[in-house]
Write the structure tokens for this entry.
Amino acid sequence: MSHYKVFQWATGVVGKSALKGILRHPKLELVGVKVYSEEKEGLDAGEIIGTKKTGVIAQRDVEAVLKSDADCVVYCPLPWSPDDICQILEAGKHVVTPCPYFYPFVQTPDIADMIDSAARRGGVNFLSAGCNPGGIAERFPLTFSGWCNQIDRIRMTECGDCRTYSSEGVMKLVMNMGATAQEAEGNPLKEMLAKNWFESIDMVAEGLGTRVTSYDVEHDYIFANQDIETAVGIVKEGTIALNHYRHTGQTEAGVEIIQEQIWYIDDIRQTRLQRKMDIPRESGWRIALEGDVNLNIDIDFPPELTHDERVAQGLSTTAFHCINAIPLLCEADGPGFKTYLDLKMIMGCLGTYEPRS
């Protein structure tokens, strides 16, 4: 059985789950950890995630990554840098990341070409993977499209009470929690985020054998009617406490593809919001296909889990999807930029048995 040496870059909320996944995966060996803070530098990887020591010591030096004998780097920083990604690829290491370059060929072709060229120079492959985007938004709708013949609309909706979400960058910069409407409209990430969601729409269209002819964006904000405590601080009364993003693509084949997020910091009753929204579910994801076959596919975690456990497992899915893709990425034809459309099915790996090829 082939084994692959892996270097973990960044140990935030997703990076820590990635570390756990690497250590448990029977085909992977952890050979390094890149961190950003002085507090984590010098710690054993096991100490960072609260498990037994591994003998792998965290470093802040980028050169340690580039000069290592790693086969693959799991790149998880926020914010991320395409220059970092290209530097790693040119050093001859495969890169898998939850950062949003899932299908950039239409929205940011310059970035796609930059990453593809770096991968080719390094003789390696690149893949973005995750949960949403990176799975629910593209891979799962395409999987269930195989049950249909005529599709009029595909809608992917994420709903989530985010009070215990512990990434300050995501809560404030991506979700706009605690911002004013003016601040949200002036968010420097706004255009980039729209392109990220459009990437998911573009990939679904590509998988269906069509292409997007027009795009639309709708943003709706609902404000707090009182101060609300969250894992990253107080969201003050009168600031954004529910953020509704809706991105739509119309295709040549007549299929409408919708990518929708409803993030909020209250329970489903929404008593702490200035007005209520009709939310299709308390948390989790719904994939809806409409056409000659109508399907609602709900994806959620067991109701007996606490809210904190649900958030933690949601973040883990992002990391584990990346980790489980590593052997496929290392073994894929290449070199170059890869997407789900280029790889075999990404599955969990629990044993050492080699399946039939």
Notes: The mean pLDDT is 92. Residues 307-331 form the longest helix (25 residues).
